[in-house]
Inverse folding.
């Protein structure tokens, strides 16, 4: 376990297509710490003994009052759990939250999405960020990264942001994307990806010196 004095946990919320994931990856690399995005699903699955598909189905989706599962049950530690023991999205969120807290206690890292900022709100090592960007830039990034049309990119952008907002607002009682919900909210279009990474790095280093 890392010394708490030197431990840093950076959480990143992001608009779809904003560059938040790229910023998180580059930030982790330049700081020499771990990076967790979809990897958080794998961590939660490994610690709980559930298969990753269970968490993927509920990933950043607010509870609908229904549980996810296969007709015959879902894999659990190499076997199948019967359908009457299906876990709800709320229970999966609880399990994933525990995995996030355990991970944060062990090592410095960057965590992207999944309400990590709220889950770790009482951890003094946690610094939360939200990345947003110019809509035109976001659309172009989506077109280039996913090979879709401009119209498809706009629809994906709207749908994904709506889902992330619903998930965050439901589980945190805060407002997704609102500056007051984070320690720092940044428009990546002002400095660009690389300079935004440098800006956040400087912000973190100054915070750690206090």
């Amino acid at each position: 376990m890392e010394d708490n004095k030197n431990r840093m946990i950076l959480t990143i919320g992001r608009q779809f297509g904003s560059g938040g994931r790229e910023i998180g990856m580059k930030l982790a690399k330049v700081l020499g710490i771990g990076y967790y995005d979809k990897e958080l699903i794998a961590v939660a699955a490994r610690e709980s003994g559930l298969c990753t598909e269970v968490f993927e189905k509920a990933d950043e989706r607010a509870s609908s009052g229904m549980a996810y599962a296969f007709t015959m049950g879902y894999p659990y530690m190499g076997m199948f759990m019967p359908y009457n023991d299906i876990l709800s999205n709320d229970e999966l969120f609880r399990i994933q939250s525990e995995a996030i807290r355990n991970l944060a206690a062990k090592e410095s890292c960057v965590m992207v999405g999944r309400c990590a900022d709220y889950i770790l709100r009482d951890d003094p090592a946690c610094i939360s960020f939200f990345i947003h960007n110019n809509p035109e830039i976001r659309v172009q990034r989506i077109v280039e990264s996913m090979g879709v049309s401009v119209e498809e990119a706009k629809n994906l952008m709207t749908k994904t942001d709506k889902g992330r907002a619903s998930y965050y607002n439901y589980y945190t009682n805060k407002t997704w994307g609102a500056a007051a919900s984070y320690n720092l909210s940044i428009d990546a279009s002002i400095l660009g990806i690389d300079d935004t990474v440098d800006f956040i790095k400087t912000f973190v280093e100054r915070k750690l010196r206090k």
In short: Strands lie at 9-14, 34-36, 74-76, 79-81, 109-112, 126-132, 184-187.
